[in-house]
Write a structure and sequence with these properties.
Chain lengths: 208, 208
DNA sequence: ACAACTTGCAACATCAGTGATGCAAGTCCG
DNA sequence: CGGACTTGCATCACTGATGTTGCAAGTTGT
């Protein structure tokens, strides 16, 4: 006896790459190629087709489906993959222990390193995946902690609103990651931090 | 003789609201309701269905299709509608003639007034519609002209990169429009201009 | 070498979304 | 009032995307 197609569709799930035991070398390469192609393709068009992703990966569409049961599973895997790198990048900057300005610069540079090249995956912060959401939440708190430390140290003005400043900071990183024309990560990080701290105005404008 | 359905699908187009002569009062109301519902619905989920939009407008899906031949036509009409308001808002601030700081503040406030409530429509800057694209291009140039004027007047530092500053400015407006918790447009404009000009740092940080 | 695994291909099922249409009932406006 | 317009409803046509399956051919690891 066979179950109705529709029922099987909603029920059957293959294991996502995270959930199985080691893949054979060729399969491993394929998975990586698919994830990278998905990033490239989806960052250009978030509504891109499985077909387009498969093509970009140089692979048949059926193969994509063999590795990622559903489109959702693929995007989820992408988000998890990028999120781990993201958290690692933040952590490596010692945002809770280094002097505020140093931590701010280092964090910015590290995050830009990940964000350039994994922009789509990183935009999945509000993922359905609780792990992804948790990590993004943690990073957000780390960021605000750093900003509070910076404020106490006199790096940030005493009257700044921390959540607003964090949003501005995220937006600057986002813009810098889009912008990158010829510039390297360090130059971009300098630009972001400089803009965040000093803004674009003169210290004491004398006219309107 | 009847043409094949598929052919008609790609060919037949009803006039968009902009392209016809006056509608009867009830039809006019329906069109407005649909546009407003589209904005509300699409700003929450850009992939929302015609069905969802119709429901939000309190109208049958067929009615939406009667007024806007295709989904594309609806989004286009939305973009045109918002773009006109956008251009008018910028223009009303006299960005080319008022003193730079005044113009900057006034433009910000006016644009926020439109952007809050028409966020989705305004995000369609890279619309297929040449009119929309042209207006957004014009506004962009007006903005950069204003910034150059501000730089010459000593409001912006002499070393700022105008395109980067404009991008930052846009991003700040975007964040402020999302952010609006209880704040009115003037408070938001103050926040944006203040952040753009002064940043979040202290004038002379004495530590790292 | 050989068993296990992986891939491409072709074919298929299903579904959701889009768009069209005819008709009956309601609304507008001269 | 009465003709013209508009809407909801039910129904249909079509398309594109997603996901499945079986099989033959190629690859991997031991």
């Amino acid at each position: 006896m066979t179950l109705p197609y529709a029922f099987r569709m909603k029920t059957q799930r293959r294991s996502t790459p995270a959930g199985g035991r080691p893949l054979r070398a060729d399969a491993e390469r394929t998975v990586t190629a698919i994830l990278e192609a998905a990033e490239r393709t989806l960052s250009r068009d978030p509504a891109a087709t499985m077909e387009q992703i498969a093509e970009a990966a140089g692979v048949a569409r059926t193969t994509v489906h063999r590795r990622f049961a559903t489109r959702e599973a693929l995007i989820d895997a992408l988000a998890v993959w990028a999120t781990q790198r993201f958290a690692a990048a933040v952590d490596a900057a010692h945002p809770d222990t280094a002097p505020p300005l140093v931590a701010l610069y280092q964090t910015t540079a590290n995050v830009l390193g990940v964000k350039v090249g994994w922009g789509f995956a990183m935009s999945q912060a509000s993922s359905a995946n609780p792990e992804v959401a948790r990590v993004h939440g943690d990073v957000r708190e780390t960021c605000e902690r750093l900003f509070r430390r910076a404020r106490e140290a006199g790096v940030l003005r005493a009257d700044v609103d921390i959540p607003w400043t964090r949003r501005v900071y995220y937006a600057l990183i986002h813009e810098a990651a889009q912008n990158r024309d010829e510039k390297d990560t360090d130059a971009l990080a300098t630009l972001v931090v400089d803009t965040l701290l000093r803004g674009a105005g003169t210290p004491h404008p004398d006219r309107l």
